[in-house]
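Attaching the record inline, Q. Sequence:
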Amino acid sequence: MNLALWIATALLAAVSLTGGITKTLVPKEKLAAINGGEWTGHAGVGFVKTIGVLELLAAVGLILPALLDIAPFMVPVTALCWVLLMVGAMIIHRRLGQVKLMMVNLGYVALAAFIAWGRFSLEPFTG
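Structure, as predicted:
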């Protein structure tokens, strides 16, 4: 189970890192022109950048606490925060009628919930 949790965590961290880099470095106008990025056309630059920074922090929070054995309880806490972020994303995509993207977000919710459940109860990090 530990291996499955690490694989899921690495996958979610990669998604988070990619999204965070994109939202913090790519201009909002370019994001709005990309399929799935239309929501940025309705949001302020600061909001988009803030979401990007939160995603970057999530990538860090999913991996580093366990690797460095410094506050490893932050891994499942970060996974729960990711669930909340993706619920917000699902709401935005629903408002824009982007059902496929809602399903992608739902997949991320399931992955993050698995990580949180696994690290809180099945295979918690012990120090």
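The chain has one domain: 2-122. The chain has a mean pLDDT of 95.

More tomorrow.
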